[in-house]
Amino acid sequence: MEPVPLEPVTLSGRLVTLEPLAPDHHDGLVEAVRDGEVWKLWYTAVPAPEGMSAEIGRRLALQEAGSMLPFAARRNADGALLGMTTFMNIDAGLPRVEIGSTWNRASARGTGTNAESKLLLLAHAFEVLGCPAVELRTHWMNHQSRAAIERLGAKLDGVLRSHARTADGALRDTCVYSIVAAEWPQVRSGLLHRLRRA
Asked: What is the mean pLDDT of each run of 10 residues along the chain (198 residues)?
């Protein structure tokens, strides 16, 4: 089996473009994270404005190591940056990826940009990389994220209890979801239907 190609790639849709993350995204991402102050939600791991440079550096270092392919999400209508997302925990041998470390500016909710981002990522994972499954994870207490993942059509594989520590040191239970290749056509149809209504 050929290894998963890890070189940066641009994924473009009607509403949003996912660009390879770069240091020059910093100022736009700081503006995006200030929209709704999403880093203050205790059950998320979103960088604060003063930590954005370090977070970009962390993700790019993981890309260099071959375990992450990070993106900045840009709204096509006005060019504004919306947030970040990644392919992470890459298993090149299978291949298998997790879509995660995702956050978006609060005002983008309900506009279809996140649904289209997931469509672009899933299409690349299943149709280009040849993944038999794609994983998504979230905090047990992040009900908004869990509902969004379930709306995609992902199935709950299980809950990893006391799996990791949050920024404040508390133990986190992690919900693990997946979509397998056989489910992708139905998931794609559902996302396209949602986007036609957006």
From this structure: 71 97 98 90 82 97 94 97 96 91 91 94 95 93 88 92 79 92 96 86
Q: Which residue type sits at 51?
A: G
Contact 4, 98 (CB under 8 A): no
- Total Cβ atoms within 10 A of residue 3: 12
User: What integer pLDDT is reported at residue 171 of this predicted model?
Assistant: 83
The answer to whether 113 touches 16, Cβ cutoff 8 Å, is yes
Q: Which CATH number fits domain 11-197: 3.30.930.10, 2.160.10.10, 3.40.50.360, 3.40.630.30?
A: 3.40.630.30
* Structural domain boundaries in the chain: 11-197
Torsion angle (degrees, nearest 10) of CA 15, 16, 17, 23: 150
